[in-house]
Amino acid sequence: MSAKGRSRVGDGPVFRPVLLTLVMLGAALLIVGPLAIIFVEAFKAGLGVYLSNLAAPDTVHAIGLTVLTALVAVPVNVAFGIAAAWAIAKFEFPGKGLLTALVELPFSISPIVAGVAYLFVYGAQGWFGPTLDALGIKVMFAYPAIVLASLFVTAPFVAREILPVMQQQGSDEEEAALSLGASGWRTLWSVTLPNVRWALLYGAVLTNARVMGEFGAVSVVSGSIRGVTNTLPLQIELLYQDYNAAGAFAAATVLAGIALLTIVAKLIVERMDPDRTG
Amino acid sequence: MPRTILPGFRLAMGCTLVYVGVIVLLPLAALVWQAADLGWARFVTVVTGERALAAFRVTVLAALGATAINAVFGLALAWALVRYDFPGKRLLDALVDVPFALPTAVAGVALTALFAGNGWYGQLLEPFGIKVAYAPLGIVAAMTFTSLPFVVRSVQPVLEDLTADVEEAAETLGAGQARIFASVIFPSIFPAFLAGCSLAFARSLGEFGAVIFIAGNQPFRTEIAALLVFIRLEEYDYPAAAAIASVMLGAAFLMLLAVNAIQLWSLRWTRSAS
């Protein structure tokens, strides 16, 4: 509508260029600057040093642990997101608003608070800690706690992406499939999920990015044991504290790369699915 | 109540409730339990201790600063993305998502390198006596970065929905541009703007990863509440950690209620306007 060429508020010959310049400058300083310095610092001493920094045993281990965490946390939260969205979008029940709020709750909670909360469940002084300890099951300061904390912080991501799409689409197609004799699972698999596939994909990509990059919650529950329970973000902190800035930035390029891929995925999803909003 | 023949309600609902219970509610209950175990008097002593109060003050002030910056910059950014056509617009729109996608620890080391005395920004600022890295301003910078998308993404869709006719009507009535913005445009985007600011503020209150690298973390001066929780844990002072963390949890709940109230209000607002 603005293409009509009619002048609207803020289109003045002075205001527009000044505002645009300030916005560009702000974005360059606040967003491009931080991204750029990661790669500049990582490659400052040359490609060879960069690669040998990435190949440092503890960093390789951290990358492996991070991938292993995502391999469990992402599918679990995708399944949870589908279940929650199915219940909330397809049915009417009392307390629906409350359930939606509970699903979204982890968004509002500081990762540090989440980490501490897990400590009080599975830690030595926590509710289940002593029992688990007696059974010889190690949760806290080990892989299971890293996965649990990651599950907490990313629990809402998939549901939040697919819920609006499911609500918008209603249940007509599912009802048609069922009346033609398809089973419930078959309907979910061949009707519902294909209809929300782009939102689902983007939710999974977001979950993955956040799981791989989570710092606060994981730093409380992992114990940050070098070469054992250090995920990639924790490894960055460790290298940085060791005054190994080049190593820290080399590790950071991996996570920055995943972040950039996440944004590319969003652009692709928006292009494939033009009626998607937000 | 519309009837549906869809199956799977019990299964989906059961899974959702069990999962939310085990993954989200159980740990939060354990935290509150641990804090309650202290008893009211000791709880108050812990959370009003000098160092805790200083940490709360640093956190709230820095979050307010970051939110103020993002209120202005986010509104300008949303305005440019909606109202103007310019080369690189799609790229700029995509860049807005960077702070959400970039892990906070990565943002923390990057910002610290930029603002350090010998960094790209630090070199320019320190001759003027402006110290950002290892100073309170560093906390503001980190919180500004991590909460940058909230105002933009809240305001953008509402601004997009504004049609030209109201502005034109105001213009024919003789209102100037500033007047039209203040009395026509801003009131319509205000609820969304306020919701965006509240989300940014809430996020900043709980931010940890980006802040601890750049803050310098001196008690009473640049120590945020989240870090104090972490330090109490490392000292094995679990009751104190639980107490300070529950104050943060309470603040998060209050912000959540505020954001929900604003969003409800905004929904009613847009409905009555159309």
TrEMBL record, chain A:
The chain crosses the membrane at residues 20-40, 60-89, 101-121, 141-159, 245-269. PROSITE patterns: ABC_TM1. One of its GO terms (molecular function) is ABC-type sulfate transporter activity. Keywords: Membrane, Sulfate transport, Transmembrane, Transmembrane helix, Transport. It is a multi-pass membrane protein. Gene3D superfamilies: MetI-like. The keyword Methyltransferase does not apply. It is found in: Cell membrane. GO terms for cellular component: plasma membrane. Pfam families: BPD_transp_1. Its main location: membrane. Part of the ABC transporter complex CysAWTP (TC 3.A.1.6.1) involved in sulfate/thiosulfate import. Probably responsible for the translocation of the substrate across the membrane. The complex is composed of two ATP-binding proteins (CysA), two transmembrane proteins (CysT and CysW) and a solute-binding protein (CysP). This is ABC transporter permease. It comes from Methylopila capsulata.
Automatic annotation (TrEMBL), chain B:
Residues 56-259 form the ABC transmembrane type-1 domain. The keyword Heme does not apply. It holds the Pfam family BPD_transp_1. One of its GO terms (molecular function) is ABC-type sulfate transporter activity. Keywords: Membrane, Sulfate transport, Transmembrane, Transmembrane helix, Transport. The chain crosses the membrane at residues 12-36, 56-82, 94-121, 133-152, 180-202, 243-265. The keyword Transmembrane helix applies. It is a multi-pass membrane protein. Its main location: membrane. GO terms for cellular component: plasma membrane. InterPro entries: CysT_permease, MetI-like, MetI-like_sf, Sulph_transpt2. Signal peptide: none annotated. It is found in: Cell membrane. Belongs to the binding-protein-dependent transport system permease family. CysTW subfamily. NCBIfam families: 3a0106s02, permease_CysT. PANTHER family: SULFATE TRANSPORT SYSTEM PERMEASE PROTEIN, SULFATE TRANSPORT SYSTEM PERMEASE PROTEIN CYST. Part of the ABC transporter complex (TC 3.A.1.6.1) involved in sulfate/thiosulfate import. Part of the ABC transporter complex CysAWTP (TC 3.A.1.6.1) involved in sulfate/thiosulfate import. Probably responsible for the translocation of the substrate across the membrane. The complex is composed of two ATP-binding proteins (CysA), two transmembrane proteins (CysT and CysW) and a solute-binding protein (CysP). This is Sulfate transport system permease protein CysT.
